[in-house]
């Protein structure tokens, strides 16, 4: 780790987005990206056969307030990519600080991630998990390919939220937000 800028030689425009042509070290780049703290979400959808699917994701972002649009991305080698590509709807769940175990459960491959999880079918039958800090039920609007990920754009058709504390993630670890007044010594 150092503070010197990482500036490789200018890329050949014809190969700039080709796989394995980057001069940037992927592990070091991931470490740099990890300095940006994010929320933790679980994205859910239902397969054509009615089976619910879900993954833990921290690549969620707001795109637009009017119309209300959000995005998230999923690796092209994900075993559930086809489900999300074919689903008419997906739900984004912002997890609370007490839901780290749930985040870990949905981050791992498992035959039934929904076993023991309280949920109800939402729009397009996408599962809506109970007790998340917020959820955004979205109609899948478009997909864009970006490197080794697919970016999903969703139109928010319904949402809910509460005042619970969100779960945060930075530098490979979970954490929580401390408001200015919480950081002051007594």
TrEMBL record:
It comes from Bradyrhizobium campsiandrae. This is Flavin reductase family protein. InterPro entries: Flavin_Rdtase-like_dom, NADH-dep_flavin_reductase, Split_barrel_FMN-bd. Residues 1-24 are annotated as: Disordered. Belongs to the non-flavoprotein flavin reductase family. Pfam families: Flavin_Reduct. Keywords: Oxidoreductase. Residues 33-176 form the Flavin reductase like domain.
């Amino acid at each position: 780790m150092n503070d010197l800028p990482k500036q490789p030689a200018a890329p050949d425009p014809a190969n700039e987005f080709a796989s394995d042509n980057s001069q940037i070290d992927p592990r070091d780049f991931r470490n740099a990206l990890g300095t940006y703290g994010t929320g933790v979400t679980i994205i859910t959808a239902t397969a054509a056969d009615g089976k619910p699917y879900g993954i833990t994701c921290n690549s969620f972002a707001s795109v637009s307030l009017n119309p209300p649009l959000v995005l998230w991305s999923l690796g092209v080698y994900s075993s559930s990519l086809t489900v999300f590509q074919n689903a008419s709807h997906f739900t984004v769940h912002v997890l609370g600080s007490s839901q780290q175990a749930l985040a870990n459960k949905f981050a791992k491959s498992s035959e039934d991630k929904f076993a023991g999880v309280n949920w109800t079918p939402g729009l397009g039958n996408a599962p809506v998990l109970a007790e998340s800090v917020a959820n955004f039920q979205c109609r899948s609007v478009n997909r864009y390919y970006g490197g080794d990920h697919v970016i999903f754009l969703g139109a928010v058709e319904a949402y809910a939220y509460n005042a619970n504390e969100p779960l945060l993630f930075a530098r490979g670890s979970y954490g929580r937000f401390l408001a200015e007044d919480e950081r002051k010594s007594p």
